Amino acid sequence: MKNNWIFPAEWEKQQGILLCFPHNGNDWPGKYEAVQWAFVEFIKKVASVEEVMLLVADNKLKTKVSGMLEKAHVNLKHVSFIIQKTNRSWMRDSGPIIVKNGKNRKAINFNFNGWAKYTNYKLDKHVPAKVAEFLNIPLEQAVYKGKPVVLEGGAIDVNGKGTLLTSEECLLHPSIQVRNVGFKKADYETVFKTYLGVTNVIWLGNGIEGDDTHGHIDDLARFVNENTIITVVETDTKDANYKPLQDNLKRLQASTLENSKQPTIVTLPMPKRLDFDGIRIPASYANFLILNKTVLVPTFNDANDREALNIIANCFPDREIIGIAATDFIWGFGTLHCLSQQIPQ
Predict the structure, then answer these.
(1) How many Å apart are CA 15 and CA 339, to the nearest integer?
(2) Which of 38, 53, 128, 163 could be disulfide-bonded to 109 (CB atoms 3.0-4.6 Å)?
């Protein structure tokens, strides 16, 4: 594998985390002020263990954010600002994916298009080039059969050894939020191999109810080490998530890794149903973020928070597990993992 470019696993050594300070209040109607301070706390936790590369829309916002970070005693030595206007803050999806070949790095631009749902994403399209420039690494446009490929970071999860997790609902639905018209499994698998060094793909079925992205994997199942996958399950048989999550569990139990061995499967509870302003919102403990020394886990003021933290702690015995209150974030339909993208060292 040494001669190939590969997308490293999230638990491998990171230079830092790419974040974008929330400036689009429309993503969090009525909660924008709260989200900004929640985001400061998020930055503080990341900056305590590694670098934060923080996109801000302009110098005025940079000044405001610097003041907020100082107030919250954030280690500013670990925060680098990148001035770039964006439409939204979901760096997992609009940011580049950084791949490695030995010590060399390059950024892959997967042509974000607003999840094939929203029209206001033109500013987000500039993020990969800006980040590659900041890191001083080459940027490569992902293409397949002469056309740019659309793929969000939240739709995939890897073990860094050749296996990738994704969902059929997100990538293969024939009519809803179609990213790449006419793509079949084999097309995606070729793209994954070409750009991410993936030789083996595990396809799950459907995502959770209320997910704006239509089936992102980072709300469903994640690798916690190269041979262990953690997956969310719903215990309430009347809940809309019960059947799809049971189906995903069965698929995982029947799956194999790149080495033909079966993965170890760990189950994670779901928080109780969350509704806000008449809408079900997609709260999931699977949206955790792995850092160099810690794992940040979204919590939802729920009785299952403690159980989820304990299960994830057992998966990462060498890392500190920190719960981050995410009830404000989730009103924007995503939490910690969706908002961030790791930059491998």
Answers:
(1) 17
(2) 128
Contact 266, 311 (CB under 8 A): yes
At 119-177, the pLDDT tens digits run: 999 999 999 999 999 999 999 999 999 999 999 999 999 999 999 999 999 999 999 99
Does pLDDT of 212 surpass 90? yes
Query: Which fold, 14-344?
Result: L-arginine/glycine Amidinotransferase; Chain A (3.75.10)
Exposed e or buried b per residue across 279-294, where buried means at least 16 C-beta atoms within 10 angstroms of its C-beta: eebbbbbbbbbbbbeb
Spell out a b/e string for 42-81, using b for 16 or more CB atoms within 10 Å of the CB, else e.
Answer: bbbbbbbbbbbbbbbbeeebbeebbebbeeeebeeebbeb
User: CB-hemisphere CA count at 13 Å for 51?
Assistant: 15
> Which residues does residue 18 pair with via DSSP β-bridges, in sequence order?
53, 341
Residue 85 φ then ψ, to 5°: -70, 140
HEC string of 67-96 equals: HHHHHCCCCHHHEEEEECCCCCCCHHHHCC
| Residues 187-211 pLDDT 10s | 999 999 999 999 999 999 999 999 9
338 is an active site residue: yes
* β-strand partners of 325: 299
Asked whether the predicted pLDDT for residue 1 surpasses 60, the reply is no
Which amino acid belongs to residue 95?
G
d(CA 41, CA 267): 28
Q: In this structure, what is the dihedral angle of CA atoms 291, 228, 321, 342, given to the nearest 10 degrees?
A: 20
Q: Rounded to an integer, what distance in angstroms lies between the CA atom of residue 230 and that of residue 268? A: 7
Q: How far apart are CA 263 and CA 229, in angstroms?
A: 7
**Identity of the residue numbered 58:** D
In 3D space, the residue among 342, 293, 340 whose CA is nearest the CA of residue 135 turns out to be 342
Closest by CA to 142, choosing from 171, 186, 112, 119, is 112
pTM: 0.96
